[in-house]
Amino acid sequence: HLKKLIDMDISSGIIQPLPVTVFPANEIEQAFRHLIGGKHIGKVIIKVRDNPEAAETLPVRVQSQIYFKPHMTYVIPGGLGGFGLELADWMCLRGARKLVLSSSRGITKDYQSFRIALWKTYGCEVVVNTADISTVEGCRNLLVEAAKLGSIGGIFNLAVALRDGIFANQNVEQFVASFSPKAVATKHLDSLSRTLCPELDHFVVFSSVSCGRGNAGQTNYGMANSVMERIIEGRSRDGLPAKAIQWGAVGEVGLVADMAEDKIDLEIGGTLQQRISSCLQELDTLLSAKSAVVASMVVAEKRSGRSGNESIIDTVMHIMGIRDLKSVSLGTTLSEMGMDSLMAVEIKQTLERDFELVLTPQDLRSLTFQKIQEFMEAREKDKTDAVKMVLASEGKLMGMELLLRNLGDEAHSDQIMYSLKTHTTLAKQSFPPSIIIPGMEGTAGQAWYNIGAKLNSRANVLQLHQFAQLESINDIGQQTLEHVKALLKPTHPFYLIGYSYGSYVALQLAALLEQLGYRGHVLLIDGAPHFLTKLTNLHLGENFTDNSLYDLLFSSIVNQIFPEETKESVSAVFHKLDTLKEKMNVFMEYVDRQNIYSKDYSKVIIEALFRRVKMAAKFDLNSIRDLKSSIMLVRPAEVALQDIEEDYCVSQLTSGKVTLKVIEGNHTTMLDNPVLPQIINDFDPGLLDDKNFEEYIRDGKPVAVA
Fold first, then answer.
1. Coil, strand or helix: which one is 444?
2. d(Cα 546, Cα 526) in Å, to the nearest integer?
């Protein structure tokens, strides 16, 4: 009765079927993605035929598998070799139960006995035959003995004898030895199997890429394989089972594996070693293919043109005689690795000729594999700017000389916000100026005046001279925030540019402004907390003292003002003094000898630099607040610090977009690069405002369009 009620309701339309979403058979992936989305109602159905009554479905690609008949016998010359044992095991798993393994030497290793005993546990009957297959009688004996187990269903010739040598050193005996197990044995097995093996399903010979493609030193081996393949082609024309498989280098087992030892990436004949598991997986495809001669190989990477990180490193490794890069330290110089004068000349000429990399003798002595890697990465990353990376070497800017270009311009140092003279267009007058935070000196200098002259929008330098007594980055951010806010508009994005030490302040200000509801962008010029903190500690040492830091600052500033003074002599002057007062008095004596900076300014600068260097060295990287603003990092091609992420870990500081650009120069000279003002102009807030219009609308922020 219930069934009748249900049938009535279905026929009357009261009970409706579940909604159905139908996908054609060629869109199975989309169907599953729709299903995983969890938004569907009812059933997801794959349509495999137009007419439900039709027997034919859409054509589906399948790969037939090879199986062997358990009542038939399979003969494997060379079956006790590395590849032969793996093939026999594969055949056992595919149904073969009667195997005859042919080897002139018989069982010579315990592993061979182990594998045979294992197959017997599968229920296989295994016989080892030592007949000489290079003779007609030996082949006849092999086939007759095999036929006693059952009709022969397959012959797989894996036998091989290598007699390699350049052609000039080859002789008749070596050709005969190489031909015997391959060409001669295959010829005999072919003729005999036509009468002794009427039920033969497989006649397979293992050839080599050295035949199909050629390999130096293997003329005889290649010719033997070629003869085998011609025999196979003849059998195929006669309608008999016939298959020749050209293998490349086979790894893990066999002759190549024995020669390669632990060199798993050995390249032979233009091929890399193919794993034995991969070879067995390909057998189904190869044995079921229509062609009589087939091939399977892993083609080695082509290195023509010598472009890419590996080629230049491999070239230097080859000249140095280094086989494995992992066996040496990337930071060790080539000189320390044993580079002699002849090697140096060859490396220098090769790098100039093939890679357009010109090195001075000093650069070459300090060259490391790590520097080579960084050079290639920089050149690949910014091809449009034609970056030619200068490899950092001994004797180039180091320590405070790297971080301190000059002491700034004292004439305008009392102004907290100094307006640069720029070429601002009328359309951009309504936009807030870019805020530039300079480096360790904390004041504007000639470099920033030159950059300002090439900018297309307003720019102000936030000078830190008035905040020289502050002890932390957070204090500087809090004290300068109101001065920055006075130049901004809530409806416009801020644009902060931090150079070197100024990147700390720029990121701190960005975090404070975001808390107040402002949105904007940050441009870091070779500066980031992780980079500067690590660089500062690298040059100061982990256990630096206030006294040693003052010595370093005094000597560095004196060298800036009096470049004719040697660094060693100036350092010795301050190092022998015990108290800060004595050091300051000597420093003032130097200041009296010049007319660029006043004593008061010089004293304040010394105290400010002392505090800022300590801030950088002791900075707590865990205290950085996560930003939402986009950040662009501009790096010099000449790296000041090698052991750090490519983006100076900037991507860890913000959830916004991070962009990296590399320009020519080092930490100080990059400010003179004409590309830098172009980057600042391209990162202009007005342009970004237009580009990010949709983003601002989505976030509910008003937009001003120039």
1. coil
2. 26
Strand partners, 658: 631
Q: What is the CATH number of the domain that holds 505?
A: 3.40.50.1820
Phi, psi for residue 607 in degrees, rounded to 5: -65, -40
CA distance 673 to 245: 60
Alpha carbon of 649 to those of 276, 391, 542, 551: distances in Å? 42, 22, 21, 31
Burial of 305 (0-12, 13-18, 19+ CB in 10 A): exposed
**Residue 94: both structure tokens together:** 């595919």
- How many Å apart are CA 660 and CA 531, to the nearest integer? 14
Q: Which residue has the tokens 């790894």?
A: 251
Q: Which of 79, 155, 158 is nearest to 119 (CA)?
A: 79
Eight-class DSSP state of 333: B
Q: How many angstroms from the chain centroid is the CA of residue 652?
A: 20
Do residues 513 and 487 touch, judged by C-beta distance below 8 A?
no
Q: How far is CA 381 from CA 194, 393, 557, 661, in A?
A: 64, 22, 36, 8
* 246 DSSP assignment: E
Please name which of 192, 183, 154, 292 lies closest in space to residue 236, comparing C-alpha atoms. 292
Summarize pLDDT for 197-233 with one digit per residue, the tens.
999 999 999 998 878 777 777 888 889 999 999 999 9
The distance of Cα 432 from the centroid of its chain, to the nearest Å, equals: 41
Q: Tell me, yes or no, whether 552 and 666 share the same domain.
A: no
In-domain check, residue 419? yes
* Rounded Cα gap, residues 120 and 124, in angstroms: 5
The residue among 672 and 230 whose pLDDT is bigger is 230
Residues 6+ apart with CB under 8 A from 326: none
Q: For residue 373, is pLDDT > 60?
A: yes
585 and 492 inside one domain: no
Strand 271-272, strand 243-247: pairing: unpaired
Residues 551 and 438 both lie in one domain:
no
Which residues partner with 295 through β-bridges? 246
Nearest to 506 by CA among 536, 470, 473: 473
CA torsion sign for 96, 99, 102, 105 is positive
Instruction: Quote helix, strand, coil % in the chain, to nearest 5.
Output: 45, 15, 40
The owner of tokens 């081996």 is 221
pLDDT for res 602:
84
Residue 702 lies in a domain: no
3-state class (DSSP) for residue 287: helix
Find out whether 500 and 435 touch, Cβ atoms under 8 Å.
Answer: no
Strand order across the 494-499 sheet: 417-419, 459-462, 434-437, 494-499, 520-525, 630-636, 658-663
End-to-end CA distance of the chain: 78
- Is 626:654 a contact under the CB 8 Å cutoff? yes
Q: Within a 10 A sphere around the Cβ of 407, how many other Cβ atoms? A: 23
Looking at the 3D structure of the chain, how many domains does it have? 5
Pair of tokens at residue 256: 């190549």
**Residue 1 in domain:** no
Q: Which residues lie below 8 Å from residue 628, measured CB to CB, with a gap of 6+?
A: 514, 519, 654, 655, 656
pLDDT in tens, 610-644: 899 889 888 888 887 789 999 999 988 877 776 77
Strands 271-272 and 267-268: antiparallel
> How large is the C-alpha radius of gyration of the chain?
39
As given in the structure block, the two tokens for residue 225 are 């394989």
Amino acid in the structure at residue 303: R
Residues 421 and 483 in one domain: yes
Provide the CA 685 distance to its chain's centre, in angstroms: 34
Domain that holds residue 488: 409-531+621-697
**625 and 590 within one domain:** no
Task: Provide CB contacts within 8 A for 5, sequence distance 6+.
Answer: none
CB 153, CB 129: distance < 8 Å: no
Domain boundary among 238, 267, 299: 299
Collect all residues with Cβ–Cβ distance below 8 Å to 593 and sequence separation of at least 6: 562
What's this model's pTM, rounded to 2 decimal places?
Answer: 0.45
Q: Cα separation of 398 and 286, whole Å?
A: 62
